[in-house]
Design brief:
The structure is a single chain. The relative contact order is 0.18. The chain is built from 9 helices and 2 strands; from the N terminus they run E-H-H-H-H-H-H-H-H-H-E. The protein has helices spanning about 10-15, 20-45, 55-85, 90-95, 100-115, 120-130, 135-145, 165-180, 190-225; strands at about 1-5, 230-235. Helix 3 (about 55-85) crosses helix 8, helix 5 (about 100-115) packs across helix 9 (about 190-225) and helix 6 packs antiparallel against helix 8 (about 165-180). The protein has one domain (about 1-230). It has a two-stranded antiparallel ribbon. By secondary structure, the protein is mainly alpha-helical. The longest helix has about 35 residues, at about 190-225. The two termini are about 35 Å apart.
């Protein structure tokens, strides 16, 4: 069983808070939820290498798509913290001295990471949330990739099972070039693999720092503005499948999307 502590806030208690704290509280929770869900999906989406290469290509592409969205969300979460917390001097003075050492350390690491120009910011601005490709990265990476790559589209009568792998191949190359902080040149698969591994490490570290920091600030706002004696109840949730064994495939049963026949009703 999983033990969950349910904190009963009530709208009246939230309404009694100052607007700056209330908005920050709700926005930090919103950002944390999205980061948490995307992180879990990435952990679920890629397991053992499938026997069919086509599935291998598509599921690897699916992981990269989820990671690009998470990268964009991490950048946006940091902007939220800068604009709603750091830029609000009275708020920062009230809560920074109360932070746990882990959260205070997270601020230091995040300021250092984003202050020197984060690859996450570059990827967010060029790829994660935008399709216009104003820097023409798709063409640049098309030109640098060799003929030996898998230049394929996988089409199905069910749109959800269609995957344009060649497109993903080119965009993944753009992300890797941004992570390497240089314009794409001749393909070097070893350097690409190293850059991807380093990007994964960066995403994990930044995600950990942000969720640690946001969780601590959320707790501080609740206990400071509402009180430490706020009503809570413990709910026991039956354990779900282990995340290490759960798999999020790309392909699904096409028949499952069809409406039931009249005879089945």
């Amino acid at each position: 069983m999983t033990e969950v502590h349910c904190v009963h806030l009530t709208k009246a208690k939230l309404a009694a808070m100052a607007e700056a704290e209330r908005s920050l509280l709700l926005l930090l929770g919103h950002a944390s939820n999205e980061i948490n869900v995307l992180s879990k999906l990435i952990l679920m989406a890629r397991k053992d290498e499938p026997a069919i290469k086509l599935i291998d290509h598509v599921e690897a592409g699916q992981v990269f798509i989820l990671m690009r969205v998470l990268i964009g969300k991490l950048h946006e979460a940091w902007r939220l913290f800068q604009q709603r917390f750091q830029a609000n001097r009275p708020l920062a003075r009230r809560y920074v001295p109360k932070l746990l050492p882990e959260a205070a350390g997270a601020i230091t690491e995040l300021n250092k990471h984003f202050g020197k120009g984060s690859p996450l910011t570059a990827i967010r601005s060029a790829v994660s949330f935008h399709y216009a490709d104003q820097r023409n990265l798709a063409e640049a990476n098309f030109q640098r990739l060799p003929e030996t790559e898998v230049w394929e589209f996988y089409l199905s009568k069910t749109i959800g099972n269609t995957f344009y792998y060649a497109s993903e191949l080119v965009i993944d190359g753009a992300v890797i070039s941004l992570a390497m902080r240089k314009s794409p040149s001749k393909t070097n698969l070893a350097l690409d693999a190293q850059a991807f591994a380093e990007l994964c490490d960066t995403v994990i570290k930044v995600s950990g720092h942000i969720t640690e920091l946001f969780g601590n600030i959320i707790a501080l706002i609740v206990t400071t503005c509402i009180g430490e004696d706020i009503e809570t109840t413990v709910v026991e949730i039956p354990d779900g499948p282990k995340i290490s064994t759960f798999c999020l495939p790309f392909f699904f049963d096409e028949n499952d999307t069809l409406p039931p026949s009249p005879a089945a009703k």
